[in-house]
Each structure stands twice: as structure tokens, then as C-alpha cells.
Amino acid sequence: MIKVVKFGGSSVASATQFKKVKNIIDSDKDRIFIVTSACGKSGNEDHKVTDLLYLCHAHIKYGVPFDDLFNMIYDKYMGIKKDLNLEIDLEKEFKIIRDLMDKDISLDYLVSRGEYLTAKCLAEYLNGQFIDASEVIAFNYNGEINFEKSEQNLISKIKNGRRIVIPGFYGALPNGTIKVMSRGGSDISGSILANIVNADVYENWTDVSGLLIADPRIVSNPKTINYITYSELRELSYMGANVLHDDAIFPVSQKNIPINIRNTNKPEHPGTMILNDCSKQDAIEPPHFITGISGKKNFSVITINKFQISNEVGGLRKALQVFEDFKVSIESVPSGVDSFSIVVETEAIEKVVYEIIAKLKKDLDCDNITVIDKMALIAVVGRSMRNKPGMSGLLFGELGANNINIRIINQAADEIDIIIGVENKDFEKTIRCIYDKFITRSDSL
Ligand code: ADP
Ligand code: ASP
Ligand code: MG
User: Fold this and answer.
1) Is residue 21 within 8 Å of residue 264, measured between CB atoms?
2) pLDDT tens sequence across 254-280
3) Which residue stretches of 27-66 are H helix?
4) Which residues form the domain of 422?
5) Is the shortest distance between the CB of 208 and ligand 1 below 6 Å?
6) Rounded to an integer, what distance in angstroms lies between the CA atom of residue 205 and that of residue 166?
7) Structure pTM?
């Protein structure tokens, strides 16, 4: 069996966490490929190394002294080295970075150093082989991953039977320049690796016992999701359940490799299994009506009113074109007979909202346009909702009984999720109500 295991920032935040990682690795000989994030926060007062590196770069850009920040990073790694009795020449590593900071250091190179240094320390501590991600993960110039090249790179680097430790979050362009992924990208690195080595499972070790039915910062002690499909997870993580980066799903789902989310602080917990198809598991233990709830705040709803617009050929297309012209991506388009609305992230239109309205008025010759801000979208996701009549009635009835005004409703044809829009102020309350109705009181359904 081949297992690719990825450890998130909190799993490598201190020497104590490194020891937990070692126990996890030593307890299973199949855990061969190890991907690590940069050291995360080890307490409330602490900072994520990647955040500090981004801050250093901002200081460089504006010509502000950054040595205090840089020293915080240095001290963190020196502390880990000392506590674990490592031999790595960190002085040399930091000198290379520091010297470049006085020249023209690129943002991507600088922020990738967190993963690089963490992986170097971890490789030594685990007695594994360090392979630099810039020599494995190959990007094309358009930013896409070149899987074939990455696979060849990896094969050419593996030396002997030792475990392999690779930094997450970055790779290299064809000319060798380092390129980072988006924040949380180590999840993607692990997934790419799982794809290229044809892993039997991709274990993603973090600080929670799997994917929880709702965000633990909103619902206290939410239950763990035992099994979830890739598509359900895509919906949940796209809408904010960001325990796993949403781009980490595609590379493994392509090859049907299960993802297992696990807790470094509770390695005995089985966590969450993410599969292409959960029907076998569902036959043994029927899942809840809903698998998970997630959501995001701060959307704007732009409503275009025009008599009988639904009969007008090309009306919707003209409106969508305006948003495309302003490079604004659209979340949802609920429609009526004499109006339709376009839901977008407020941040995406903030600077151009008046221009967009003017263009819509001109191109659509409409009667009225309104913009409502401070809206939240919540995704209620569940494979069991499919073909279950009455599900929406139960949901809306519960929210009505709790005085929550639903402003938007959207359900995709595959029926695995219902998206509802409520005001920002009702966001947390709505998630708690749904959790309470469908999970806590699920026996009464
Ligand atoms: P890592 O550093 O290991 O990559 P992240 O911080 O990226 O970890 O993701 C784990 C965090 O995701 C948890 O600590 C939790 O606060 C948050 N989170 C948000 N929604 C959920 C959810 N539905 N289930 C589990 N964790 C969630
Ligand atoms: N260290 C990077 C970040 O903080 C990548 C990761 O942790 O996955 O975004
Ligand atoms: Mg993460």
C-alpha cells in the first residue's frame, strides 16, 4: 500500500507537534510520501510562518525595516532544531534568504521558504529523504500543473527505500522560477503527489477530527462526517468549509483515491473518509438527511426589474455580459417573471458597482435596478436529499419558525445541495438552526 500524508501548519507548529508527526509516521510503514505545510501557530500569541513571510515581503516593498519579523521566524526554527537535536545548518539557510531579501527577492520565493525549511527539518527528524518541491511539482506557464513532468521529476529523484519528505504549497515554472499556490495550497501539493504515485489513500492530517458537519466556530461540538463524496465536499469547501482546499479534490478524484482527514492530536480517531461513491457505507449505516452545512458572508444581490423580462430573448445574456466585461464572477442567478437577480461577492464589485449599474441600465433598457449588500449564502449539502420530497419544506419551515427571512433560494439539478441567502446578521443563527433541526433533532424527522 502507498499512502501520501500531508501535515498542516498546526501539526508542525512546535517540537511537540513534530514528535506527534513522528509517532504517526513510525506507526505505519505505508506512510511513504510526506508533504508538509510551514510551521503554523503553536498558541494564541504565536503567528503562522507563512503570514510572517508575507508580512516581511510587504515591509520590503514599502522600505520598512523587517528584521524583527524575520528574527521571529529564525527563532521559531532554531527552537525546533534545538528541542529536536537536529543538525541542519539553519544559519546557512537563513543567510541565503536574508541576503536575497536585500536584493530583488520574489514574493513567491520568499513565502515558499516556510514549507522549505519545515520540510528540511522534518526530513532530518524522520530520517527521510528531502526532495525540494521546486524539483518535483511542475507548473506550466499558464499556472496549470503538468502531471506527467511532475511524475518524471519525482521518479528521477527517489534514491533508496527511505520515506520522502516534500514541502507543500509551491512548485516551479518551466524556467525553474518558484511559484506558490493559493493560500492553504499544501493540500493541493499532497493531492498532486497522491495522483502521481497512484496512492491508495491520501491522508490529510490537521487539527480537527475530520470534516465536521458545521464550522466548529459557529456550532459548538459539531459531529464528524464519517463519509462524504467528492462532489459533496466540493460544494461544502467552495462555500467556506475550508478544512481542505477545494482544488485538492480534482487530482485525487480523477484517480478515485480516497482522502482521509485525520487529527494529529488524536491519531486514534478515524476522521472523515472522502470517496467517489459512499453507497456501500450508506447501506451499512444510513447517513443523515444532510451531510454538512457551510457558508460565507458578504455577498451583494443586484436585481434587475423589467416588465416581462423572462420572455425577452437575450436579456439574461446581456446582463451576464456586463459582469463578464468587469471580470466579476457570478455565484447565482435567481429569476422571476419581471426580474432576475445576480448574486456576487461584494468585494468583487465594490469599486465598480456604479459603472456596472449604468451599463446594465443602458444595455437592458430596464425599469429599475436595486443592490442589496450584507447578504450571506449558506450551502446545505447532502447526498440523501436527492429524490427526497419535502426536504425543502422542512428546511424553510424551520427557518420561518425561527424568524429567519430567506432572501434567495437555489437548488442545482443534481439536488445534492440547497443554497439559501439570508442577511449577514442571521448567518450564524441560520447555521445553528439547520444543525439543530437536521442533526441534533434528526430522530424527529
Ligand atoms: P491545516 O493548517 O491543517 O491545513 P486549516 O486551518 O487549513 O488546517 O483547516 C482546519 C480548520 O478548518 C479547523 O481548525 C477548523 O477551524 C476549520 N473548519 C472550518 N469549517 C470546518 C468544518 N466544517 N470541519 C472541520 N473544520 C472546519
Ligand atoms: N503555508 C501556506 C499557507 O499558510 C500553505 C498551507 O499551509 O497549506 O497558506
Ligand atoms: Mg489548510
Assistant:
1) yes
2) 999 999 999 999 999 999 999 999 999
3) 49-61
4) 292-444
5) yes
6) 15
7) 0.89
